[in-house]
Specification:
This protein is mainly beta. The protein folds into five domains: 6-222, Jelly Rolls; 228-350, Immunoglobulins (Immunoglobulin-like), CATH 2.60.40; 356-453, Immunoglobulin-like (Sandwich), CATH 2.60.40.10; 455-666, Jelly Rolls; 673-712, no CATH class. The chain contains four helices and 47 strands. Strands 33, 35, 36, 38, 43, 44, 45 and 47 form an eight-stranded antiparallel sheet that branches. Residues 1-19 form the signal peptide. Keywords: Repeat, Signal. This is Immunoglobulin I-set domain protein. Residues 355-452 form the Ig-like domain.
Length: 712
Amino acid sequence: MKKVLLTFLCCFFAASAMAGDIVSWFDDGDALVDYTAAKDGSGGDISALNPGSTITHAAKITPSQLDVTEESGPVVIIEAGGTLHGSGIYICNGEFVFALRTGADDGARELTDLDGTDGAMSVEMGEAIAGQENTVYASLNLTTGMILTSVNGNTEIRYLVNAVSSDNLTGNQTVAFLGDQALSIHMGGLSGGNDQENPFLNQSNTWIFDGVAGEPVRGQIFGIAVNPNLMANNPAPATSSVNIDPDVVSEAAFETAEDPANPGSQHPDVTGHFVTFYQGLNGDPNLGLPPLYETFVPAGSDPITVPINTPETFELDLGQEVFWRVEEQINGAPEGDSANILSPVWSFETLPPVPAAVSQPEDQAVFAGEQAVFEFSFTSKTAASAAWYKEGDPDTELLESDPDVTIELAQDGDSYTSTLYIDNAEVADQGYYYCLASNTDGDTQSSSAALAVKRMVGYWPLDGDYQDYSGEGHDVTPYGEPDPAQWVDGVAPAQTGQALSTIGRRESTGETEPFNAAEYTDEITASLWLKWPGTDDYGVIWRGIFSSRDDSVINWFLEIDNRNGIVRVNAPGYDAYQFAQISPDEWVHIAFTSSKDEVGAFYINGSQVAITNPGRYSINDTSRPVILGSTQENIDNMIEAVMDDVRLYNYAMSPEEIAGIYYDVTGEQICVEPNAENLVYDINGDCEVGLDDLAAVSVDWLNSKIFTGAAE
């Protein structure tokens, strides 16, 4: 998870002529809502920001001791939206927290979770102080990923990763401020009742704000975000940078605060810059101690540069934390004047004495017999070595005495790259691997990377039995006593043999013992043949076809609408994805893949019919039963149909591989990329450019519609 942190240490009342009551950069008249009394949410409280990229929540409150010591759940301050989309500010165990959901319901989160992959994010803002007025706001800009939060003048900027660039920021358009009578109809940025891993972000645990009687309150929501360029900005080294080499850094740089009336231009009243550097320790800038260095730089063209790392300024060492900030001088005012504009406090860290990681090993997924390669790059100011290990109990060092193991260490000055080669990969090699880099000052361990062997992990031909013929041992146990009549002709008896009919005998469905089909890969391919007879008399609409789940966790499932043959898949945190509608009493090949980069691809009869954007579909990779013919271990959910040749792979197959499974049974060729660039002249749609297409074009050869002027 990437985390970029900027800390402001005072308010900026002089920076904007707007001077709002809570958010000094805004005009209070621009607030979408502005409350001075507690209220519950109701529909239509706020105009829709859908789609929207910016929103700011703000509040001025006086918490009670009860508010800051509540240990069972969040205390609501101000929130907007609900169901799957919303955001808000809460007190969680004495800390203000901003929480956001962009399509997630039950994604488990820490109080600070900046990864938007699952659509559930949150940020710790700062301490809530009982018995005194607290001024807080959180400003979100999804276009840049920025979350700017401020608690009593102490402001931070963090940046989201893997988040959407816009969303329905107001959800169901309810707004709750502190809560009055009931909070049951809204969720804001909290998760649903399934998020048991963090009770402070669970909607079912919410508390109405207690407060101090008689103290004024105010809550606002704006449809805009604070612009960080209104302060000194764009520091170099970039804030939160690590592994800065003291031997090459000679200056720090930044850009002047922007003119609010002329974006992109310097603030015309800035006449200079007070720049101060501090010695940090464990993330604490130690602003109360004497600074490392302070100077004044006159106004000039951007970037503004400040010489450092000299005997006249201060010198950088290995393993040093440096914090620094800029106070923009306004019209010649002295340092500390209220008219000046304070920047964030920026930070960077120099190279540590021990090896410093530069690039980490990446996961490898190879077929049996292929070579897997892991690389770890690091910097060391002194001579270094490296060794590789496989995680286990205990971890095992890999040695080149193993004929399938080769380890190389390349050096270029202070830069090192250690490479691990594993030849002839086999299932026994699966696991997690890491590198340990060492020098005379100590060791640095890389992150662990997975090695997976791509293969079929479940194969149920259903030729008169439930046995798994993949060799992995995942036999299906039927829910009821098998009936010989359930074994019928398959889709192509000469190729596929028999099939399983659950028509009139739902208990002939069944499940495996728990296993993780996506272990080490985070990918799967599911493939099967289905002949659906059409609707029946049971009332349950959605019937399970193939799934991996139990009562507590869903990995993935494939199901059909028994009324009309619509087929869909689902996975936690994502809306069900409908991708096809099949006809009754016809054999249909159905397949879907889920890849590591969170792309879902869906196939009917060997052809890809739908695909998601990256980051928009993923599965859980936990050990759960694989269920054939159901998704809920419930007889009402079990499908009545005929199934054949059910397969499960631990990697996402290509369109060509899916087409190959279909071709092996039918002999029918499939156009795997009908929209490919090199098929733009495929006039007759036969998936190749040939003489027939040339003939189609030549029919109109030399036809012309060029306008010519009248003859002179």
